[in-house]
Amino acid sequence: MKKLLTTIGTSIFLTALTALPAHAATGDFTIYPTYQHGDNTSWILLKAEQGQTTKDFVTIENLTNEPLSLNLEILDANDESGTFLLNENPTKKNLSGWMSIGMDSIDLKPHEKKNVQVDFNIPENAKTQEYKASILASKSEKNAQNILITTRIGVRVYANIIEPTMAQTNIFATPAYSQTAFFVLSLFGVLAAMFYNLIHYIESKKYAKKQA
To answer: Disulfide engineering: 62 pairs with which of 91, 108, 155, 206, CB 3.0-4.6 Å?
Structure first.
């Protein structure tokens, strides 16, 4: 029976994510956006352009008197009828594949909190729409019945991807700019050569008159 409980326990998860309040906590730890996004303190709200690289931060805090080790991961999500649902498929797609935190786990001293940088690398061919994901912190331990319990909470991420604005478009990297620049430089070179030859011709005439 003890072995059976252990086997069953490996599939039990306590997930505090669907109704995630500001600074959600399990009693042992909490995770929340380091900076406020407008009036929102619970989620990361990102507006980014195709091809843009940007960053944000989450804060992870140990609420206990003991050292704590937490696992970290990023999963895609969907918001269906007001319910925020995680995509448990480990394959990175869409927003979760464009995000990175540079670590799979974090160690915290008693009552210590750390800021973790979240990098966003939006591909140039990303569709212009809203994407959703979650940055998750989790802790696994066995209870008195030897059942493995995983406690997991997270910070929602809503990313609205838009087309690059004209003001930020790098015209120096466009083919049109390259062709125009080449034409202008070529024309300048031709005019400079003509001017040089004209000056040389005038000076030659002056020199010939002096010799006469």
So the answer is: 108
Measured distance CA(118)–CA(105) in Å, rounded: 14
- Cα separation, 139 vs 155, in Å, equals 15
Higher pLDDT pick, 125 / 4: 125
Q: How many CB atoms lie within 10 A of CB 77?
A: 22
135: number of Cβ within 10 Å: 24
Q: How many whole angstroms separate alpha carbon 77 and alpha carbon 79? A: 7
pTM higher than the cut 0.90: no
SS3 sequence, 117-149?
EEEEECCCCCCCCEEEEEEEEEEEEECCCCCEE
163 in Cβ contact with 169 (< 8 Å)? no
Tell me the two tokens of residue 19. Answer: 């109704």
- pLDDT per position as a tens digit, 24-39: 666 799 999 999 998 9
- Burial pattern 2-21, b for ≥16 Cβ within 10 A else e, equals eeeeeeebeeeeeeebeebe
Q: Residue 78 has which token pair?
A: 């969907």
Please list the helix, strand and coil fractions of the chain in percent, rounded to the nearest 5, in that order: 25, 40, 30
Q: How many CB atoms lie within 10 A of CB 210?
A: 7
